[in-house]
Amino acid sequence: QVQSVESGGGSVQAGGSLRLACVGPRADCEYYMNWYRQAPGKEREFVSGMFKDGSKRYADSVKGRFTISQDNAKNSSFLQMNSLKPEDTAMYYCEAISVTCRPRGESYWGQGTQVTVSS
User: Fold this and answer.
1) Percent of the chain beyond pLDDT 90?
2) What digits encode the pLDDT tens for the residues 54-74?
3) Rg of the chain's alpha carbons, rounded to an integer?
4) Per-residue CA distances from 110 to 35, 64, 102 (Å)
5) Edge-to-edge order in the sheet of strand 5-7
């Protein structure tokens, strides 16, 4: 099964930082990438994403603390997470949406990377 691949999760204390990375399934393809997270017992929620018009969007809960970026090849995405809080604890997932490779618009999800923030 074709997937994106996340990395960079770990355990930190509140106030700390982590940088997550996501690589799309094919190096020769461009993707728009979104980040989601799912805490135990909760539904998956949108965290941040980059869109076709170049805009960046963030969930209200992470605005001012998280920053999304993408490499020039538009094959990888990064999520810089600062001032982490215990409520940020979750499994973080990357969704890579194909732009230049067929099938266009197809979503590729990774298996997630765990972020744990202790108080």
Assistant:
1) 87
2) 899 999 999 999 999 998 788
3) 14
4) 10, 25, 19
5) 5-7, 18-23, 76-81, 66-70
